[in-house]
Each structure stands twice: as C-alpha cells, then as structure tokens.
Design goal:
718 residues; eight-stranded mixed beta sheet; five-stranded mixed beta sheet
Length: 718
C-alpha cells in the first residue's frame, strides 16, 4: 500500500546512536512536513522500530502535542494521529519521533557487520543498505523514492570508531561517558534509499579530482593497501561523468567504502557508495585481470548513479530499469574512455546475450512492470532490468547517433534535477533534441556558419510549429520495448533488390500462443557486400518491404548486434553469410561474427534452423582469434556435449568434445603460459587453457604438469 499524498517531507534532522557491544541502536528524527490536504493523520513507514515518543509541533519552538501511534506491520507503516489538532493545507509542521531497535542480522537496514584481524580478533561495525525499502528499518520516514527531502545527520560513537555519511563532517562534539557526536553537513534533496551512515574502525586514502572533489576509499586497516587502484579509477570516472553530463557533481566529496559483509555488489548512496570488498579492493600481487575489469565496471556503475538515479530519480520502482539499465550502459561508455586498456567493448555484447537468454522465456517480464510491495520490488533487480535496460538504451543510441543521444540525456538531467520522473520524460527529451538537431543540421548545410544563437532559436520555433509527423517518435518506439516482455525475431528474405521483412516474438518452449499480439518498432540496421555504410530502417509493422540500392551477394542485418533482436535469413541468406565467414571472416566485425554464431544456435533451439547449418557456420572458428566470437562459439557448442553427457550418449559426446578441441586447437596451442597481454587476451587465454586441460589436450596437460611440478619443488614460491 502506497503512502497517501496528504503531506510530504521537506527536511529530516536525524540522530543515530549504535551500540556495537549490545548490538542495538537508538535514535530520534525531527521531520519537517508540508501539508497538501487538511488532515489529522500522518502516515509514514516504520519497520521493526520501537517508537517511544511521538510529538507534533506547529512551529520550531513551543510545546509539542503528543501523537497517537498506530502500527500496521503488514504494510510496514505507522499512522500518527492528532486528537485535537487539524493540520491545515499549506501549513508546515514538525514531527518528532524517538525510537530504539536491534541492529539487523540481515544485510538490509542498519545492520551489523564483522571481520577478523590477522590475529583472529573479531571486530564489529554497523553499516546501512536502504535500497529499495529498508530506510524504514533504521528510522521512521516517507520511504518512497518520490518523497525527496534534505537530511541533517548526526551519529554518536565511541572513541575507537569513526563515522562517515553522505556529506562531509562539520564538527565532532565530546559527550559524557566517553562518547562523541559527529555532525554532518546538510545533504542535497534526495530519496530516503540513498541515505547512508557507517560506524567502523576503517582507514582511508584520498585524492582530489580535476574538478576539486575529494575522493576517499575506506577499508579495514589491514586491507587499506589494496585501495589504490579503486581510488585512481574513481578519480578518473567522476571527472569523466562531470564532463559527459555537463552538470557538476553536486557534493564536495565522494567516499567509497569496502564493507566486509555486503549482499549486493555495490550501492550508490549519494556521496558514500558502498561495496563488497571483492568489488572494490585490488591486490596487485594476487588479483586477476578479470578482477581489475570487474572493479572498474562496478565503480563506473555506482558513480553513474550519482546523476542518473540520485540527481534524477524514478518516481516509483516500476521504472527501476531507468536507473539500473542506464548505469549498466554507462559502465561501458565511461570505462571505454577512461580505461581503454580494459577493452570493455569486448564484453557488452555478452550482457545482451545474457539478457536475451532470460527474456526468451515465458517467465520474463517487461522492463517497466507494475509493483506495489517490497517483495515485488525486490524481484525487479534482475538481468531484465539491468542488462536488457542497458541493451535497449544502446540500441537507441546507435539508431539516433551517439551525439543526439548524449544531448537528449543531458537535457533530461538538467530539466529534472532533484526531481522524480517516469520514463516518458526521458523519451520526450530525446525526441525533442533529436528533431531539433536534425533541423539544425539541414540549416547548417544551407547557411554554414551563419547559424548563431538567434537563428537556432528561430529554427527551434519553426520546428515546434511545423515538424513533420514522419519525425521519429521515440516514446512510441521505446514503449514497445519497455512495456512488453521479450524481443523480436526478424525474418529476412532477399530477392534481387527487394528485402521482405517480418517480425514475431522469439520464445523458447512450446507455448506458441504467447507469441501472438506482440509488435515492436524495430530500429533495423544493415550492411551489404557492396558497402560498409550502415543503412537504417524502422520496422513498425508485422511485415514490410525495403529495397537495396543495388543487388548484393550478402546482407547482414543488426550491425554489430547493436539491436536487441535476432535475425533469421530465409532462402540462401545463411549460406551466403557462411560462405563469407569461410572465405574472409574479417570482412565482418567481431561483434557481427559473434552475433551470427549466437543467432544461428538460438534459431536451432526453436526449430527455425537445422543444427547442421549452425555447425557448418561454426567451422570458420578454426581461424577466429577475437574474444567475443570465440567465447560465443564455446558458449553455444559446450552445452551441446553437456546435453549428450546428461543423456548418456557417450559416443556422440566424445565426438562433440573432440570437434570443439579440434576447432580451437591452433588457438590453444598458440597460448603462452604467462600473464602478459591485454585483459581480453589474458581472460581468453585462461579460458582456453582450462578447457583444453580439462578435455585432456596432450600439449596442455604436459605443460600444466611440468609447471605444477616446478611449483611443488619451489615450495609454492614460484
């Protein structure tokens, strides 16, 4: 049950005092509220809190009126009822609440975490994880994302601990009984799920960004020497986002804290992002190349949220994908620029294949799905919200052009800063910017450098009045991707210059009735044997026809697999592409090659393509060296022999294993047993050698045995 809109919070004055010995905490909160409808009842959230005092104040001074507290545990809500005072519309009031509770034993709310020192001593700390609906377990609040407010936070602690929160510490007061009270600066206007505070004995290291923001990484004392890589990455990434979004990061600091017990990978609390230790700390002596890649991507994700999610927030959790899909997408955009050596472009396609695997089942859901209660909200944190969200944003960016997409994003963030939005607001921003930029482009060709600010304004007015109905309607197009589950299978039939197109839902399983009634606006892209120029066509109907400029030996749709759909080629289409791969596979990009492998085997699984055709395509892999096609080849072929293994078809199983080893033998034998090369080369090497040794490939087993014996002889110091 959602909160009523009769009142809304403006400012929280929050005091928290955890006791890390008795593992409980006490606190008080004074909430300034604005009344929108006359009422004598204020409803807000509270979960597992014992509220010991509740007062209502008409002004900042004066005696408070005691409020009756009615609890509704099923909805994690309380009602504060005044028997004698009616809250007037337009009035400002203060609610004062005092409460006590146990530190949570889960990983949600205000919870207990522990770690052991090298000497075996157990140490306790207290940390927060409020997203999506657990701020209410730490203090009474209006715990919905649209109820944004400012927060003044104070934390009481012992001398052996420190406390950190969203904002910088202003001062520390000395209290009786050996206690200290840290008082933090007022936050910007934000949602409750972004509030954070930690009481611990961590150490930190710090640097400033080029824009003057202080970045600090906190970790347990014995692991602080593993924080340097994360600190450098965070400095680069925050500077990148500051420039990309053209909106200065609004806080004076950004802390990154490695929490010993942490359920999620990380959390984007504004100004105090929190992480699993394995998601933030990097040991140059022990951590792998994939660790470095993973840490950088996770930091990029959480820092993207400081704008997309924190500065502009979804109005309700049904649009969770809007912030999570965008942050996932921005991981790749940002890291590609700030850390080119990590070659992140090699991995984005894998995210889309992973999302499609889930989205091809009848159990999938639209990225924007109605949710009401905490359990339903929690279910939204899945591959569809994160990875499909990122993939459809990437598809839109490639169809519009990266420049148009970025301009629309920046306009959206500037227009809705410190507000809550629905996905329609994003589509409207992108539509208006896309249309204006197209008109400006035409006028710039006509007038050249004559277009100045005044002319741009005239063009804007002209567009507003006269824009054509043929302009791309991004809202209508994207709602076909966000409001229905699944994705389309595009069937292509080429005859001369004519290309017949049709779409249907791609669905695994036998329930074909669930494929009807689906229609997408599909932003198709294609190249041909005659030209590497990317052509675009928006398929809005079940069937359509397009005409090539001239006849071609082959046509490849979904260039670089930038679109969230798969393609089936009728007639000689598949044979033409297979011949191309066998003759000169580098004519197509590595992503195009990976997508052909993926699409062919996905079509086999729904009976659209015979297995021997997909295996025929896979033969070219004996000459493949790029990580995405190789890994996709393994990803499609290995499950085949595992299926035979389960069905106890030993002869076929061994034939399939032998085929895969034979296919990649040259590539396996070229691998050096070192840790040199790019991240992609090292990750590919690791996979190939592991596969070859497990399959008993003689040269691999021989080298591995020699190295193992040397390691034993060196007493583990090699």
């Amino acid at each position: 049950m959602r909160l009523p809109l009769t009142v809304s919070p403006l400012h929280y004055h929050l005091l928290i005092h955890p006791n890390l010995t008795s593992l409980d905490f006490s606190g008080s909160v004074k909430i300034q509220v604005e009344v929108h409808e006359e009422t004598n009842t204020i409803v807000l959230h509270s979960k597992d809190l014992n509220i010991t005092k509740a007062l209502l104040l008409r002004s900042a001074v004066g005696e408070g009126q005691v409020l009756k507290v009615l609890e509704y545990p099923a909805y994690q809500q309380i009602a504060l009822v005044s028997d004698s005072m009616v809250l007037k519309k337009g009035g400002m009031y203060d609610i004062e609440l005092e409460f006590v509770a146990k530190l949570s034993e889960s990983f949600l709310g205000f919870y207990k975490s522990t770690y052991r020192t090298r000497e075996g001593e157990e140490r306790v700390l207290a940390s927060t994880q409020f997203e999506p609906t657990s701020a209410r377990a730490a203090f009474p609040c209006f715990d919905e994302p649209a109820f944004k407010a400012n927060f003044s936070i104070r934390v009481r602690r012992e001398s052996r601990h420190i406390s950190i929160s969203n904002m910088p510490k202003l001062r520390t007061l000395t209290l009786p009984d050996g206690l200290f009270e840290d008082q933090f600066d007022i936050t910007v206007k934000m949602s409750t799920y972004l509030v954070a505070f930690i009481v611990c004995d961590f150490l930190s290291i710090s640097k400033n960004t080029g824009h003057g923001i202080k970045i600090s990484v906190y970790a347990v004392p014995e692991k602080i020497d593993q924080a340097e890589f994360a600190l450098d990455a965070a400095v680069k990434l925050l500077d990148f986002y500051d420039d990309y979004f053209d909106i200065p990061y609004p806080l004076p600091k950004q802390d990154l804290a490695a929490i010993p017990d942490f359920q999620s990978g990380a959390m984007e609390n504004w100004g105090l992002t929190t992480y699993r230790e394995t998601s933030l700390l990097f040991d140059p002596e022990k951590s792998s190349a994939s660790n470095k890649l993973g840490i950088t991507m996770i930091i990029a994700h959480e820092l993207a949220h400081q704008w997309f999610g924190n500065l502009v927030t979804m109005q309700w959790w049904n649009d969770l994908w809007l912030k999570e899909g965008f942050a996932k997408f921005m991981e790749f955009v940002s890291v590609n620029i700030t850390h080119p050596e990590l070659q992140v472009e090699d991995y984005f396609l894998g995210k889309c294949f992973k999302a499609m695997e889930v989205d091809s089942l009848s159990s999938s859901h639209p990225v924007s799905t109605p949710v009401e209660n905490p359990a339903q909200i929690q279910e939204m944190y899945d591959d569809v919200s994160y990875d499909k969200g990122a993939c459809i944003l990437h598809m839109l960016r490639e169809f519009l052009t990266p420049e148009e997409f970025k301009s629309g994003i920046v306009q959206y963030l500037k227009q809705y800063s410190y507000q809550s939005t629905v996905n329609t607001h994003l589509w409207e921003s992108l539509t208006s910017v896309s249309a204006v930029l197209k008109v400006l482009h035409v006028y710039s060709i006509i007038f050249g450098k004559m277009i100045v600010a005044g002319v741009k304004y005239i063009v804007w007015l002209f567009w507003q009045k006269h824009h054509s109905e043929d302009e791309l309607d991004i809202k209508t197009m994207m709602e076909t991707w966000t409001l229905q589950e699944g994705f389309p299978l595009i069937t292509v039939a080429v005859k001369g210059r004519q290309v017949r197109l049709s779409q249907e839902r791609y669905l695994k399983g036998e329930d074909s009735s669930r494929t009807s009634g689906f229609l997408w606006h599909v932003p198709l892209t294609y190249i041909t044997s005659n030209s590497a120029t990317v052509h675009r066509f928006l398929l809005k109907t079940k069937t359509d026809v397009l005409y090539l400029p001239e006849e071609a030996d082959w046509v490849k749709f979904n260039v670089d697999m930038s679109g969230y759909y798969i393609v089936h080629y009728e007639g000689s289409g598949w044979d033409d592409l297979i011949a191309l791969l066998k003759h000169n596979h580098t004519t197509l990009s590595s992503n195009d090659r990976a997508s052909l492998i993926n699409n062919a085997f996905q079509l086999v699984s729904v009976g659209k393509l015979p297995l021997d055709k997909a295996l025929d395509l896979s033969l070219y892999l004996s000459r493949e060296t790029e990580i995405m096609p190789v890994m996709q080849g393994f990803g499609e072929l290995v499950p085949l022999y595992k299926l035979m293994e389960k069905r106890d078809v030993e002869e076929l199983e061994n034939q399939m294993k032998g085929y895969i080893v034979h296919l990649f033998r040259e590539l396996i034998d070229r691998q050096a047993w070192t840790d040199d090369g790019t991240v992609s080369e090292r990750m590919l090497r690791s996979y190939l050698l592991l596969f070859a040794c497990v399959r008993g490939h003689p040269s691999c087993v021989s080298t591995a045995t020699q190295l193992f014996n040397k390691w034993k002889e060196s007493d583990g110091t090699m």
